[in-house]
Amino acid sequence: EAETDKDNALVPYFIATEIYKPQERWEEMAEMLDEAMRRNPEQKLEQPKILIPRGDITKENVEKSIAYTIEQGVNAYRQDLWATIYNQAIKMNTNNNDLFIEKLKLCLKVDSSRMEAYASIIAYYASSGDFKKAKEYVDQGINANKSSPVLYEMNAKLLFEEFQNNSDKSTLKEAERMYLKAADLALDNTELLLGIKKQLILVYTDMGENQKAIDMSNELLNIYYDDPDLYFNVGILYQRLATALYDSAVEGYVQLNAEEVLNPEVVVKIYKNFMQAKIYAEQSKEKFLEANDLEIEDTGSREAASDMRKLAKNIKEIYIPSVQEIAESEGINLN
Questions:
Q1: Which stretches within 40-168 are classed as H helix?
Q2: Four-residue CA torsion sign, 60, 61, 64, 67
Q3: Is 182 exposed, middle or buried (0-12, 13-18, 19+ CB in 10 A)?
Q4: Nearest-5° angle of CA 33, CA 36, CA 37?
Q5: Is pLDDT larger for residue 286 or for residue 6?
Q6: Fewer CB in a 10 Å sphere around the end CB: N or C, the chain?
Q7: Residue 249 belongs to what H/E stretch?
Q8: Alpha-carbon distance 36 to 38, whole Å?
């Protein structure tokens, strides 16, 4: 009958809703709903579909509460079908990974504009280490829903992860672009926006944009002063700044001791790097301790604070006095 009555959208609509739905043949149901839309989305239903309990229908919501056309009916069934399949997928995630992914892909077939299924698939492949597959679904999801901040954020996270593996600065720059795009789209979602900006702090740190990272940290701490994760991330920021300067200063210090004739500018630079590294280490220690105070369970913040305390002490008690002694013996003014 579906072949002989090619213009009648009611035929596939009936097959989908009255035959496949009761049998829970979800894929075939989705195909028939698509076929009904292809034939004639404006065709009137033989009987309007009530979308909410009759008692909740008012004069104000009556038009949105009743489906009169194929398109309205299909959209209503699609929403219900998508929710049914997605909930089934989430429940079986820990038991059957293959069926979990199969269900989520069916969700995409039912409604490709919903980002939740994309997000779950991307997270699955990323956690499995298949970043290529995860990236494929990120691109597919963004093409289907260009206004989803979650998908842009996930894209940024994958790019940032890629940078950790290949150290390609262009990848890091693209991660920044994706985070900024996600932030623009998440202006009305405070929690999501906070998470995006937390990640941007780390991106700016790896980009060498230290002042941007510090400015964003201060901006967030002024607003979210009781967020342990934020304090921890800021602790990481200052930790990275401290260790980078420390490593550079130590390298210069070793070379300094091998030189017969010292360059005063080099000595001053090494001294200032040690001093700044100490300041960063102390700031890192403080942020890690504040994170620890706010945490319900310790996530490593106390140990990280201890490491930064040791670093600051090492700089203060060993390297700074040594450089000061060298400068004094050579008549070099460190100020």
A1: 62-65, 70-92, 97-110, 115-127, 131-144, 149-166
A2: negative
A3: buried
A4: 90
A5: 286
A6: C
A7: helix 228-258
A8: 5
C-alpha distances in angstroms, 220 versus 92, 101, 215?
A: 38, 37, 9
Average pLDDT in the 47-75 region? 77
| AA letter at 279 | I
> Residue 69: enclosing H or E segment and its boundaries?
strand 66-69
- Contact call for residues 12 and 33 (beta carbons, < 8 A): yes
Neighbours of 51 (CB within 10 A): 18
- Residue 59 burial by CB count (10 A; 0-12/13-18/19+): exposed, middle or buried? exposed
Total number of residues shown for the chain: 335
List the beta bridge partners of residue 67: 49
**pLDDT digits 0-9 by tens, 282-295:** 999 999 999 999 98
For residue 57, give both structure tokens: 């229908």
Q: How far apart are the first and last CA of the chain?
A: 92
If pLDDT is split at 50, 70 and 90, which confidence band does 312 have? very high
pLDDT band at 61 (very low <50, low <70, confident <90, very high): low
Query: What are 168-172's contacts with CB under 8 Å, separation 24+?
Result: 169/207, 172/203, 172/206, 172/207
pLDDT tens column, 198-216: 999 989 988 989 889 989 9
Q: What percent of the chain has pLDDT over 70?
A: 94
Is the pLDDT assigned to residue 62 strictly greater than 80?
no
C-alpha triplet 100, 105, 109: angle, nearest 5°: 145
